[in-house]
């Protein structure tokens, strides 16, 4: 049984300046893992919401063509 997942068209590269900025935003000295989990999840959920709204706008534009 193969337990690997093939991911095509995935680009996980990120500019160092962007990485550092995100790391600074989510950093927490009081967390055992070094990040604020609540803040991190809020940022992720917010970005997902933005993507969903963008996708809905694109779908609507496609339907009206």
Topology:
Elements (H helix, E strand, L loop, with lengths): L15 H11 L10 H27 L2
Give a description of the structure:
This protein is mainly alpha-helical and 65 residues long. It has a domain of 29 residues. The chain is built from 2 helices and no strands. The longest helix is centred in the C-terminal third of the chain and has 27 residues. The chain is extended, with a radius of gyration of 17 Å. The model has no long low-confidence stretch (mean pLDDT 91).
The helix/strand series, from N terminus to C terminus, equals: HH
Ends: how far apart?
46 Å
Overall average residue pLDDT: 91
Number of strands: 0
Helix content: 55-70%
What labels would you give this structure?
58% helix; 65 residues; mainly alpha
Task: Summarize, please.
With 65 residues, this protein is an all-alpha fold. It has a domain at 37-65.
């Amino acid at each position: 049984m193969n337990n690997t997942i093939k991911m095509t068209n995935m680009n996980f590269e990120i500019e160092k300046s962007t990485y550092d900025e995100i790391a600074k935003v989510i950093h927490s000295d009081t967390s055992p893992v070094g990040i604020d989990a609540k803040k991190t999840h809020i940022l992720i959920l917010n970005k997902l919401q933005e993507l969903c709204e963008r996708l809905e706008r694109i779908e609507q534009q496609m339907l009206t063509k």
